[in-house]
């Protein structure tokens, strides 16, 4: 069982545990669409959601997910807590553990989550950090499972800022599920932590590699991109846009990938930068399915981890 476990990156979960979360997500989604909106698995329990960064999909989907599990939901920012006046993360974690059953947080620094998890007596769930975005990766995997009819053996190309948190989590979940993940972007942004995924990749048959050639989108099941200037990198915006301009996902890139390739984006999108309108609004785009699946995977994570 997963009850009581933290979810910080998905690296801490075994492949069969990731599959368990996805199967639960699929089941809860089916129940939702059958009209079973409230599944009171955790009736009367309380979840606190802490947001250091602005959010649309994560904030709303996780709030709704907790509510639909029968939970009381507290949504707050660091500024509304004593964190904003200098209380330590450790003291905040100890205090909140006396009040709530699960803590979920969207933070600037992944180290803040690690400290929360170290000192909290209840599970801590990563709603996004500078290093990982695990709930997004679960939603991505659920979407591909629905569209391609399988969980393993998929080929996915992430094009653009291959050093960001979404690319990292895509590589992590790909290593758990036996995918071929192609991280395609400028060498200046290549990752130096790919080797950490080798143990899972050896077990599942996954392949995670980096390239600076758009030719490597050929034959993939999906082309994925994200914004070029993530929150916290605004000072580097001009340089990042210059560096990443050749990696815009447009009709040419999708044609190169092939007619079987879906288009994916975690949103929000900066239309005209990382993706063109004809692609994101086109018939192969599954971005709204990804967005919906944030609800069902958040619900599964809360259901499975909350004690």
From TrEMBL:
Coiled coil (residue ranges): none
Highest classification ranks of the organism: Archaea, Thermoproteota, Thermoprotei, Thermoproteales, Thermoproteaceae
Organism for this UniProt entry: Thermoproteus tenax (strain ATCC 35583 / DSM 2078 / JCM 9277 / NBRC 100435 / Kra 1)
Residue ranges constituting the Aspartate/ornithine carbamoyltransferase carbamoyl-P binding domain according to the UniProt record: 5-146
Record flagged with keyword Iron: no
GO MF, one annotated term: amino acid binding
Residues annotated to bind carbamoyl phosphate: 55-58, 82, 106, 133-136, 266-267, 294
Keyword Magnesium found: no
HAMAP family assigned to the protein according to its UniProt record, in alphabetical order: OTCase (MF_01109)
Protein name, as recorded: Ornithine carbamoyltransferase
